[in-house]
Amino acid sequence: MGRAPGRRGGVGRLIKDTGNVLAWVNGHDHVNRILARPAAGEGGTWWEITTASHIDWPQQARIVEVAADETGGLFIACTTLDHHGLIDPRAGALEDPLTLAGWSRELSALPASWACPGFLPVLAPCLLNGRMPGRGLLVQG
């Protein structure tokens, strides 16, 4: 849906004017953030819940739970989760899902400039040779 509604008026205005939205959960930005936003009507509030993208650092997920208390009021509980990938993936076997998750975390920390289209032909041979520019040894051969 694009950037957070606070920075683009369209989605934010739509949610605010509707008046019956509890939260907008998005994962497009690369940060974890929760913001209270004013809703239409008598001082109501809706919540903008932003969770980091799963493909980029820090590769976190978020569980969002909505529940009612004994008075009928609603509340939102948010829990941020890290995956269980190896901290040092060089210590594991490539067939192990936890090793692959560790490599995913390692690669997600690379500078965004490495994502340019012309970089892939450079990245692949470096990975195959076990070295990456500026990072030293990545995989043991």
Indicate how many domains the architecture comprises. Answer: 2
State the total count of DSSP E strands.
7
Number of helical regions: 3
* Estimated helix fraction: 10-25%
List the keywords.
single chain; 141 residues; alpha+beta; 2 domains; three-stranded mixed sheet; two-stranded antiparallel ribbon; 27% strand; elongated; disordered N terminus; disordered C terminus
Task: Report what the structure shows.
This protein is of the alpha+beta class and 141 residues long. It folds into two domains: 9-82, no CATH class; 89-137, no CATH class. The chain contains three helices and seven strands, in the order αβββββααββ. Strand 6 and strand 7 form a beta hairpin.
Q: What are the SSEs and their pairings?
A:
Layout: H1 9-18, E1 23-26, E2 33-38, E3 45-50, E4 60-68, E5 74-82, H2 97-108, H3 120-128, E6 131-132, E7 136-137
Parallel strand pairs: 1-3
Antiparallel strand pairs: 2-3, 4-5, 6-7
Concise account of the structure shown:
By secondary structure, the protein is α+β, with helices and mostly antiparallel strands. The chain has helices at residues 9-18, 97-108, 120-128, and strands spanning 23-26, 33-38, 45-50, 60-68, 74-82, 131-132, 136-137.
